[in-house]
Amino acid sequence: MLLSIGIVGLVLVALASQRLVAESSATPDPTRGELCAELDALAAAVSDDAVFATQEINHRARKLSRWADVYEAPTSTATQRDDDQPPVAQAGQDIRWVLSSVAWESADLITATRPIALECGWTWPLTTQPPAAQPRPPST
What we know:
This protein is mostly helical. It contains seven helices and no strands. The protein has a domain at 30-119. The longest helix has 24 residues, at 2-25.
């Protein structure tokens, strides 16, 4: 009797765990507001000097990269974009490229998020071009 209760308990725990894993891995496509809020959170983490700021930056950047890959711009926003502006999905690739580099700086990561920033209505100074998304070794 005790053995059968134990087996039933294990089966219930396994089913509950499987459902939780399925729910957490099946994230819905982010809305524009969620994408912009995550970009703001990444920018705040980059400007933070806390002890665990790098871990927070990595976590936020990876999440933003995943979201950029699946984000679909609303038609009203997509028609307003210029053809020379890169798509949001390009930011996902650029963020992963920066994070996979041996030596990346915060400016490299922020530059990689430029397509998302443009989607969210951020403006870059008209007289300057943002630096390339390719990371450079830290200055000495």
